[in-house]
């Protein structure tokens, strides 16, 4: 059985599927990614499927599982590079890929993850700021 | 006029990959459009997996056909497995007796032009699909 390599680039794990995967290979990728997310603490996963000429229900379900597993492990998954014919076929097949974020290519996928991460940090900072301001409020209100 | 088909034994994950590759090669040879190639290979992948998982293995035969007006591809998926008891239920989106999504049979039918199924409890299942060039 072949294995799909998982590359770490900064805070992102990048997977580019270049082979026609056996079902077992897809399941192995799911496991490998979960392990690497925990081992590296990466917050983003990009799965490039631009080399895939079909995505059937098994691969689709595996991608959805990977997205769910990643989220539980505090990482966001973006599937990038889906071919137009694959998108048309997936919709006709009835596969909806719940919970999967998509982008047209790796670069846009990285932008998406960076924006989401920045938005998360912003919310976190805001929360901090509120906490810090609380003790100051009575002081400021005092004459 | 039908040409002699190519037969693949489906007994493992690897054989499902071989079915996809054969169907793709033949689909390119009869000049299906890119979208139709993609639909047919996807349907073949779903049905070959069903042959393996639910039929306990079987055969897939890929044949080029011609109805006098246009060429096409016919694929027969045959197994000697338990057969399908309730066909209406089996064709319901989301219904599965296994661990899949329940889209294989119903989805595959939407992706091809002709779809015939012969099955009976205990007598195996044979599914014939055809995709014609546009």
Automatic annotation (TrEMBL), chain A:
<dbReference type="InterPro" id="IPR036513">
    <property type="entry name" value="STAS_dom_sf"/>
</dbReference>
<dbReference type="InterPro" id="IPR051932">
    <property type="entry name" value="Bact_StressResp_Reg"/>
</dbReference>
<dbReference type="Pfam" id="PF01740">
    <property type="entry name" value="STAS"/>
</dbReference>
<feature type="compositionally biased region" description="Acidic residues">
    <location>
        <begin position="121"/>
        <end position="135"/>
    </location>
</feature>
<protein>
    <submittedName>
        <fullName>RsbT antagonist protein RsbS</fullName>
    </submittedName>
</protein>
<feature type="region of interest" description="Disordered">
    <location>
        <begin position="121"/>
        <end position="143"/>
    </location>
</feature>
<feature type="domain" description="STAS">
    <location>
        <begin position="2"/>
        <end position="113"/>
    </location>
</feature>
<dbReference type="InterPro" id="IPR002645">
    <property type="entry name" value="STAS_dom"/>
</dbReference>
Automatic annotation (TrEMBL), chain B:
<dbReference type="Pfam" id="PF02518">
    <property type="entry name" value="HATPase_c"/>
</dbReference>
<keyword id="KW-0808">Transferase</keyword>
<feature type="domain" description="Histidine kinase/HSP90-like ATPase">
    <location>
        <begin position="35"/>
        <end position="134"/>
    </location>
</feature>
<dbReference type="InterPro" id="IPR003594">
    <property type="entry name" value="HATPase_dom"/>
</dbReference>
<dbReference type="InterPro" id="IPR036890">
    <property type="entry name" value="HATPase_C_sf"/>
</dbReference>
<dbReference type="GO" id="GO:0016301">
    <property type="term" value="F:kinase activity"/>
</dbReference>
<protein>
    <submittedName>
        <fullName>Serine/threonine-protein kinase RsbT</fullName>
    </submittedName>
</protein>
<keyword id="KW-0418">Kinase</keyword>
